[in-house]
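== Protein entry: sequence and backbone fold ==
=== Local backbone shapes as whole numbers ===
==== Amino acids and backbone structure tokens ====
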Amino acid sequence: MRTIGLIGGMSWESTALYYKLINERVRDRMGKLHSAPLLMYSYDFQEIKEMQYDGRWAEAAASLAEVAQRLEKAGARAIVLCTNTMHKLAPDITSKLTIPFIHIGDATAQRIRSGGYRRVGLLGTKFTMEEDFYIDRLRAHDLDVLVPPADERADVNRIIYDELCLGVVADASRRRYQDVMAALVGRGAECIILGCTEITMLVGAADTSVETFDTTAIHAETAADFAIG
């Protein structure tokens, strides 16, 4: 198998899911006691959050690119960035690599298209829902992207940072997400992208009337399949 380099810690709650899901996929496909060869760098997420909210994206980009290079030099044959939001900096990372970068947006869009959907509802951090870097990546796969209105985006973002990243899973927050997803479906969303790697901790297929696409699981499965070859 090929070694995967994981850039995690954004947050560690979802990075732990990546480790579990990648190894489950390898076990299910290969059997016996097989597990994935992985290298991981895990960030102090408080530092990353401060960079995000202070607009210090160039500093964050330099750090992520340097970590990716270190993982490549250590033997990684592909890089997986275990977060949706920081894919904003994917071009800065890939420009420093000679190995593949497995993009979470591409993996998710391909899965959605294979399901026959075109109009999608997107949940994520405010950066993912409000900026072009993620939505444009989905549109490149001929997807029509709907996002919640401003007040709902604020609640979705707050729950991610103030609760899920701390491992807090609250019933009231689940109900809020259910309402937000229902509104997206009411506007014509054929499916929902759980576009933050922590959201899968809170809601899933049972919480909406349409199919959900868990970016954490999709990304992890894509990484495992690359490792197996």
